[in-house]
Amino acid sequence: MDAHRNRVAELSIARTMERLQKNQMETAYLPERADVVPMLRSLLEEESTIAVGGSMTLSQTGVLKLISGEQYHFVDRYEKGLSSQQLHERLVAGFSADVFITSVNAITEHGELYCVDGSSTRVAPMLFGPKRVIVIAGYQKIVPTLADAVNRVKRIAAPANAMRLEKDTPCANTGHCVAPYCDERHLMSIPVGTCDSGICSNMVVMGHQSRKGRIMVLIVGEELGY
Question: Which terminal residue of the chain has fewer beta carbons within 10 Å of its beta carbon, N or C?
Answer without folding.
Answer: N
